[in-house]
Please model this.
Amino acid sequence: MTGRSRRGVKFPHSGRRSSMSEASEESSPSKTRALANIQEKSKDAGDNQQLSDYEKKKANFIERTLWTFVMIAGFFAALFMGHIYIVVIITAVQIISFKEVIAISSGASRARDIQSTKSLNWYWLAVAMYFLHGETVIYYFKHIVMVDRVLLPLATHHRFICFTLYVVGFVFFVSTLKGGHLKFQFTQFVWAHMALFLIVGQSHFIMNNVFDGLIWFFLPAALVITNDIFAYVCGITFGRTQLIKLSPKKTVEGFLGAWVMTVLFGILLTHILMRSRFFICPANDLGANIFTGLDCEPNPVFIPQTWTMPELLFFPTKTRFSITMAPMQIHTFFWATFASLIAPFGGFFASGLKRTFKIKDFGHSIPGHGGITDRMDCQFIMGFFAYIYYHTFIAQSKVDFDEVLEIVATRLTIDDHKKLLLFIAKYLVNHNAIDSSIVNAIEKSLTNH
Model:
């Protein structure tokens, strides 16, 4: 039968076919060795990469720590040497910060094409600094400026001179506009003015704080630094909840924990600084330092007072509690609160700005720390707040009664005297110092005459 195979007949391919694994059994040892070599090399490369990353982090940590101590030592050296050295540091911070902020928005290629734009930015800075620093000198050193033959005309016409300089720059800007570069030039114009306001303007008030007394400069700066340190410590210790997306590492727990610690540290630091006339006195001697000190009548906020609580129902009769502390320590609570809850948003603003331009730092002015602006982002708004708070709630009036009488007697006309008399009468009535009938009598008398 053809459908059945014959016995004894062997077909050449009738045996079991060998599998692929079996066919490659002879070559598998060499492939295994090759694969092992590749894996070993990959592991070595990974180890080398990890070692390289570790070395970079170690070097960066050492560099950052070294420059931290250098900055601290330099700052305290300038602080103890006197007001002028601190003013020099603030001026340098103004210039470098302005340079860093302007640089991130300037295209290198376009800047080369339009040299006038870069020059004009520095011109705006010079005019702004001349105006603001001139205002400071005239206000705090009028007893020197107003008697000098050269400085008197400059002081008298200071604002007009500054306005003229600004108009010159504005006209130059408009006359140098070029087709194809208009968007870039106007962007630079707006960017420069924003930088002048946020950096030069706010640091101007920090400089005024120095002349009002070093405590108004040092205390706000110390509170911001302290808050930054405790925010980091509290954050890595028990931080869980993210605070803001702009700074993913910031936590609510670290934010609030730093607030409590900053308040406690601020009250303690204020207690220490109040003991030194060098810190609490205004700059009445620019040659003074920590060793020579200053002499002045202390502001009442530095004089300790005792507050006694009223009798409480749930305590025994005649049981009262009292606390003795300087009013400045109460003010410090509000300063520390601002430094903890508001000033960090200056840092968040800077973080958003850097993300907009996709940069890590504003510059490389401080090795291991980035730019000056990276370290000063919270200090600007804190110094501005300290100036406003001081002149609103703490500063004493510098008006001398005898000077006021001299001005009234020698510089006002008879009609001005009548208006002044009526104004004072109404003011005293509003404060319940005199009867309102007196105002009516004065008005009637002035009308008849």
Notes: The beta strands are 242-244, 247-251, 305-308, 322-325.
